[in-house]
């Protein structure tokens, strides 16, 4: 692990996003709660939160962090092409929570895929990226808007 002993404890926040493209029929089934495996949105949200809490077990060299909160939001894309997942991770610590936010998004998206793969094998996960980070030595950073 990277030595963070000399770093100051600061409030750190990271926001990440990603999407899963689905067929219109699959998206409708997810939103209306008509999938064979149950409530996809709730299970994926929980999986994202749990994934963020286990980041140090999943990603080599990540520090285990005492997260103060993890929020995972899942919403249909405005164009009806699938779902967008946004995760916000927070900690008061010596290192950032970017990996926790990215892991939350990844776990939520993979859970949607797992729960719907029998219905739609052509789903595509993508666009996983950091949107914003706050705190630490480098301060605030925001991703440029995609156009």
Automatic annotation (TrEMBL):
Residues 1-136 form the Molybdopterin cofactor biosynthesis C (MoaC) domain. It catalyses: (8S)-3',8-cyclo-7,8-dihydroguanosine 5'-triphosphate = cyclic pyranopterin phosphate + diphosphate. Pfam families: MoaC. SUPFAM superfamilies: Molybdenum cofactor biosynthesis protein C, MoaC. It comes from the Bacteria. GO terms for biological process: Mo-molybdopterin cofactor biosynthetic process. GO terms for molecular function: cyclic pyranopterin monophosphate synthase activity; GTP 3',8'-cyclase activity. Pathway: Cofactor biosynthesis; molybdopterin biosynthesis. This is cyclic pyranopterin monophosphate synthase. It comes from Longimicrobium terrae. The lineage of its organism: Bacteria, Pseudomonadati, Gemmatimonadota, Longimicrobiia, Longimicrobiales.
């Amino acid at each position: 692990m990277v030595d963070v002993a000399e770093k100051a404890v600061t409030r750190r926040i990271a926001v990440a996003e990603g999407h899963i493209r689905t067929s219109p029929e699959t998206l409708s089934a997810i939103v209306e709660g008509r999938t064979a495996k149950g409530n996809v949105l709730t299970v994926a949200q929980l999986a994202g939160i749990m994934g963020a809490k286990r980041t140090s077990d999943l990603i080599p060299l990540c520090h285990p962090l005492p997260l103060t909160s993890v929020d995972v939001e899942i919403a249909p894309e405005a164009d009806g092409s699938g779902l967008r997942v946004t995760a916000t991770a927070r900690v008061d610590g010596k290192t950032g929570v970017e990996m926790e936010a990215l892991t939350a998004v990844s776990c939520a998206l993979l859970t949607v895929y797992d729960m719907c793969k029998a219905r739609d094998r052509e789903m595509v996960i993508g666009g996983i990226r950091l949107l914003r980070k706050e705190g630490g030595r480098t301060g605030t950073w925001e991703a440029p808007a995609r156009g």
